Amino acid sequence: MRNKPVELVIAGVGGQGVLFVTGLLAEAAMKAGFDVLASETHGMAQRGGTVLSHLRVGDVKSPLVRTGSADAILVLRQDVLPVASVFLRPEGMAVVNAGRPVPPEEGRLMACIDAEPIAAAIGDFKTVNVIVLGFFLQQIERHPERLPMPVWRCADVREMLSTKRLKASGIEAFDRGYHELTS
Amino acid sequence: MEMVLGNQAIAYGLAENGCQVAASYPGTPASEILPGLATCKARFGMPQHVQWAVNEKVAFEIAYAAAMSGLRAAVSMKQVGLNVASDPFMSAAYMGTVGGFVVISADDPGPHSSQTEQDSRLMAMLAQVPVLDPATPLQAKEMTALAFTLSEAFQIPVMLRPTTRVCHSRQNMALAPIQATPKTPAFEKNPLRWAATPKFRLMLHRQLIEKLSAIAAHPATAPVRLNPNAKPSGDVIVTSGVVSAYTEDLLKDLGLWDQVACYQVLQPYPLHREFLSYLRSTYRRILVLEETMPVIEMQIADRDRVRGRLDETVPSFGELVPDVVESIVRGLFEMPRPRADRPQAPGKRPTLCPGCPHRASFFAIRKAAPKAIFTSDIGCYTLGLNLGAVDTVLCMGAAISQASGFYQAHRNLAKPPDIIATIGDSTFFHAGLPALVDAVVQQARFVLVILDNRTTAMTGNQPTPASGFGAGKEPLATVDIEALVRGCGVSYCRTADPALIDPFVAEIRHALAHAREHGPAVVIARHPCVLYFKPDPSERRPVRVSEDCDACGFCVQRFECPALVLEDGAERVRIDRTVCSDCGVCVQVCPNQALVVQASADLEGRNHAE
What we know:
The structure holds two protein chains of two kinds.
Chain A: E1 6-13, H1 18-31, E2 36-39, E3 50-57, E4 70-75, H2 81-85, E5 88-97, E6 109-113, H3 115-122, H4 128-142, H5 154-162, H6 169-179
Parallel strand pairs in A: 1-4, 4-5, 5-6
Antiparallel strand pairs in A: 1-3, 2-3
Chain B: E1 2-5, H1 6-16, E2 19-24, H2 33-44, E3 49-52, H3 56-68, E4 72-78, H4 79-84, H5 86-95, E5 101-106, H6 120-127, E6 131-132, H7 137-154, E7 158-160, H8 164-167, E8 169-173, H9 191-194, H10 198-215, E9 224-225, E10 235-239, H11 242-254, E11 261-264, H12 273-282, E12 285-289, H13 295-299, E13 306-307, H14 322-332, H15 357-368, E14 373-376, E15 392-393, H16 398-410, E16 419-424, H17 425-442, E17 447-452, H18 481-487, E18 492-496, H19 501-518, E19 521-526, E20 543-545, H20 554-559, E21 564-565, E22 574-575, E23 595-597, H21 601-609
Parallel strand pairs in B: 2-3, 2-4, 4-5, 5-7, 6-7, 10-11, 10-12, 12-13, 14-15, 14-16, 16-17, 17-19, 18-19
Antiparallel strand pairs in B: 1-8, 9-11, 20-23, 21-22
Helix pairs in contact in B: 1-2, 1-7, 3-5, 15-19, 16-17
């Protein structure tokens, strides 16, 4: 039996930078020596509609996550949570940008961050995606058992982020997400 | 190693295999192939010609002439683009090629961003050319080499048919530097072939059939056994394209990988003869999993053994995503599902971007003529249907011909309805021109609004013939839209900025008054795409919601900007700062003047300066 791959679904709406986050996690996984397949949404749906990315790391051929299989979902807007959570496995982890905490379903881990006030404090509303990404890295450090194997380290992803053409606010946003206090 | 998008992998494969001329018209999911070639050209200093063409037919014919001259050439498009290019495609199959000629037609099962789920492999069958069907970005890259050698070995165009999940997947792969070794073009005159009359066409057709027969035995493109170690049983799964990848992962997850033989068909048409007889003599049940039409399945004549779309084992429409493949496989092998299916939640519908000039255009059009028939076209502005100003969307260019048709259908009514057609700048160039000439000749009475945002926005902001630059940002000549409209014989053509809503409403009314009496009137709504031409910070007009807002919802329903939010039970509309572009257009929309531009220090200063 082969090792179970790590499977993520990243969800948001067009313009939020779902593809940016997916690309960053994919590249970081590749740099860590894994084989990676990711699937993106382009075209009409990108115009403000739901954008879903699938990311599979390990011994895989298919770029798509089956429903009920994802180890974790990253949700950049609460209203697309229902679309993304269909993909989450029963013991999976949901990392959600939400104004108010969302009650978890049994067995699942629900980690919420209110990214918009943080983005407002930074002065750049387009950094919500990177804030949630930082928070996701904090969560997988705290709950490593939720992923079948360790793939991402905060320092590596942060390093990768710093090579992208970003405003200075990008790294600040990532750090704030990573250091966000959770109960 | 780098993470490479399927389309970029195809582009790299083309460049690596010496493609010297490539042309395309953008269309999801094929749009990134040509820019990928432009990147290779710059990255490795290659002398290829890489261009966006005005439409797919023109792109095809440009690339084909290069292949006739002995060079390797490629044309790429989406599946409905091949409909536009089908005329040269069918004919080129007969005449064949000298240099390798690859026709890339990207299908969109789902459909995610298309009018149809049509299967380009059936178009290959109709044209009688071989088609290759890649499963992954890496395989798509490898198949470009296979396509070129197959094309040259049999002097025949070869189709490469990726689907959305191949085009828009990323996979890690190594891309080695490319050393360009360009060939010298040599067009050998042979009118009996290149300008064949019907009598010689019959001969060419006979030759084509002979080529196909040989290709059905060509070893390099024969089906591949994915799991040679599986125990022999009476069952086999025959797959192609990305469904092959889904099936492999699924069989491994279900513990069937060692139990059921699984094949990937690299070349769904023509299917290898030996493979067909092997299937017949070896297996009791043959499950065929392919997207989106039963192309392989139809070529297996023995109906009693085949499970697929024709006996409804496989759904006849929609994408064969891994979940669907799982239900099919579980059903066939009588494996119950361990958990109940969770219903798919509805997503958020697409909408025009905050700050999009089309939103202002549609708002004004509907205000000017609320009861008109609104024909529209293919592009971001199809989303004008959210604003109630799009009634029809058929195919590229149809807004104009359908407007003519609606006029002819209703012209004898006592009071014929107003008709307003909307078309984007790139679509106007692509297929609008012949329709406009026709409307002028027939004096069809409608207003045509050309939504000129200076780019091909929906597919990723490719240049138009009016842009003045090419696929690699190289400078090019431009064609002026006003001059073109006048050149079609239109006497009424005015240009206006839709962001100034009231004057734009007056423009539409004025054009309608002209059209009702004289024939087609054209208004060019010119305002740059907010995604591509980032507005200057000095043009920012941050808006706030004043106490005068009574939550009537007019702006949310009729202007439908994602930045205007009215939550249930809220006393006022809220501006979502995470998406607002500060275009300030919405202040012209509110019936209570409750949306106001925020007074800020630098705005004040700017107003003074004016």
